Amino acid sequence: MRYPVLIFDLDDTLIESFPEYVRLHQRIATELGWQIPSAEQLVHYGPTWEDTLARLWPGVGLDPFMNLYEQLADDHSYPAINGVPDALTQLRERGHSLWIVTKRSRRRLRQRMDQAGLPSEWFAGIFAYEDQPVSKPDPRCFEPVWQALGGSRSSMAERAIYVGDREDDQLAASAAGVGFVGVRTGPERHASSSFLDRLTREQVLDSAAELPAWLEDLEDLEELEDHR
């Protein structure tokens, strides 16, 4: 098996986050009487959610936003990307080890996964922002995975791929020596210029739901080359 270790981003890779993320932030801004951010302004995220809020509303105390967010967040559920649960089931049945490395904090992480019908038991490890020594795009974000697998980055990276929707995902994978597959299910697909456009066609899928077929085609091609 070429890639026994499959590592996934979470938001807009496995679960559809951005549409509800936009609606929730716009709803809170409206209720507070703050400037309402556009979807385009909300595309940029990071390095943390708090940093994102501070960029949107500089110099404003964020406690009112945080308090209202806690009251309203449960009204906005995040579904799974269409076809992803079935794809993950196929990958597990084929013997792949599934992992999540996300910028999302532990707060509501399991809740969002439950809403999407993605049991945590499907994954060998789920590493939130707080679990990583440094978050994406730093390659050390993958250190918890390598440690859990009992190997070093150099020994494990070539056996793994990372699947994500944002440029930070690609940069982290590249710096770690991990293969990368980009998916067009995140907000960057709406941008006039996206990092996905700079990748080869073979590196980009419409959705993570296509990953089982992509891996199967890759293994068939490698088997054919081995017999030449």
TrEMBL record:
EC number per UniProt: 3.1.3.18
State one Pfam family annotation: HAD_2
Query: Cellular component terms, GO, for this chain's entry?
Result: cytosol
User: Which UniProt keyword terms apply here?
Assistant: Hydrolase
Query: Quick one: a GO biological-process term for this protein?
Result: DNA repair
| Pathway(s) it belongs to | Organic acid metabolism; glycolate biosynthesis; glycolate from 2-phosphoglycolate: step 1/1
Q: Which reaction does it catalyse?
A: 2-phosphoglycolate + H2O = glycolate + phosphate
InterPro entries (UniProt xref): HAD-like_hydrolase_sf, HAD-like_sf, HAD_2, HAD_sf, PGP-like_dom2
- A Gene Ontology molecular function term of the record: phosphoglycolate phosphatase activity
Q: Does the keyword Glycoprotein apply?
A: no
Q: Which SUPFAM superfamilies match?
A: HAD-like
Similarity field: Belongs to the HAD-like hydrolase superfamily. CbbY/CbbZ/Gph/YieH family.
- Name of the protein this chain belongs to: phosphoglycolate phosphatase
